[in-house]
Design goal:
With about 150 residues, the protein is an alpha+beta fold. The protein is built from 5 helices and 3 strands, in the order H-H-E-H-H-E-E-H. It has a single domain (about 5-150), classed as dinb family like domain (Four Helix Bundle (Hemerythrin (Met), subunit A), Up-down Bundle). It has helices spanning about 5-20, 30-55, 70-80, 80-100, 130-150, and strands spanning about 60-65, 110-115, 120-130. Helix 1 (about 5-20) runs antiparallel to helix 4. The radius of gyration is 15 Å and the shape is globular. The relative contact order is 0.23.
Length: about 150
């Protein structure tokens, strides 16, 4: 498996983050900082799963925002703002892409996967890990790119 699609999705997000100019979120929505913290935290979860797949160990992947919302808020505080979060996100995304390039045939390894993207996607079953990474690149990351774009002022 190669990480080209994943890298393109990350590049688009990082370009949006670097452009900055985000306003406050609508009531009940995530701020730009919270979105980037969520993405970095999710990358860490995906990295753990990818490392487990490469090691031949069983793993379950959960991407439910409500499970790690306290982690997201703590990460926002720890990184001290969008610049620090962007630096972290660059590192986590690069690490995941590098591991993805190493997967090869292991990308077909089934991983118990639990993720929800609004009404668009609801997965609660084993999926080949490469398919989960593909959903991340083509559904999850673009969703958050759209959220960031909606927060842009001016």
């Amino acid at each position: 498996m190669e990480s080209g699609g994943l890298r393109r999705a990350y590049d688009a997000l990082l370009g949006e983050i670097d452009a900055g100019g985000f306003g406050p979120p609508p009531e009940g929505q995530l701020s730009a900082e919270q979105i980037v913290a969520h993405l970095a935290a999710n990358d860490e979860l995906m990295t753990e799963a990818t490392e487990a797949v490469l090691a031949g160990s069983p793993f379950a992947y959960y991407d439910l925002e409500t499970i790690h919302r306290p982690q997201v808020d703590a990460l926002v505080a720890e990184c001290g703002g969008l610049d620090g979060l962007a630096t972290l996100f660059r590192a986590t995304s690069q690490k995941l892409c590098t591991l993805t390039d190493r997967l090869g045939l292991a990308a077909e390894t089934p991983v118990e996967t639990h993720l929800r993207e609004g009404f668009d996607l609801n997965v609660d079953q084993p999926l080949p890990w490469g398919r989960t990474l593909d959903l991340h690149a083509h559904v999850h990351l673009p969703k958050h790119l759209a959220q960031l774009r909606m927060l842009r002022t001016g």
